[in-house]
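User: Can you help me understand a structure? I only have the sequence.
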Amino acid sequence: MKKLLCAAALIGLFSAGLVSCKKDDKKTSTPTPPATESPYYFEFTLDGKYTKFANPEPQYASLFGDVGGWQTPVNALFPGIRLSFVYTHSATHADLMGLKGKRLRFNDPYDSRDSVLASLSYDTDDTSSTYYDTSDTTFENYVEISNITYLKRQMVVGNYNDVYVITGTCRTPMQRGMEPAVMLEGGKFNMMISRLVLDGE
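Assistant: Let's start by predicting it. Here is the structure, written out as tokens:
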């Protein structure tokens, strides 16, 4: 009987020790903060394959004299999708702010019907394996801008660039080399784009 009581006492002490350790663990443990999701993204389905890029770091097309930007994976340059806007003149701040609510075509940039056209390209890797939008004269394939906001002015490689956040949707056939065109559908984006600041602005 004494052995049973001793055993019971030991079990009780052991259990109490476990409980005590657990309480101490709770006091000393530091919770892991949840990962912060990037507010910038471009998601789409190309030829039935869904892709989403959400790099919070900007990739400015204005470094190459264009109005637009790239969206890429986090901590990587490839693959990536580029959205740019082709104007018949040097784009001003008012031009970009005026994109809100517009549905733009993919077309020959010298088409006199449009003062601005959309351009989309998708680099699958760093070996020039690139899909380009196909020219289209209808609004069945488009980039539609639901919102654009001015973010900041930033000096990049010796030039001032105005940076904007643009939100919208898109769809278009995409073609790589001589391969048959495939559809890019369900395109949704909230990404940074840029333009070179003009003299006197």
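Now, to help you interpret it: The helical segments are 2-28, 93-97. The first strand starts at residue 41 and ends at 46. Let me know which part you'd like to focus on.
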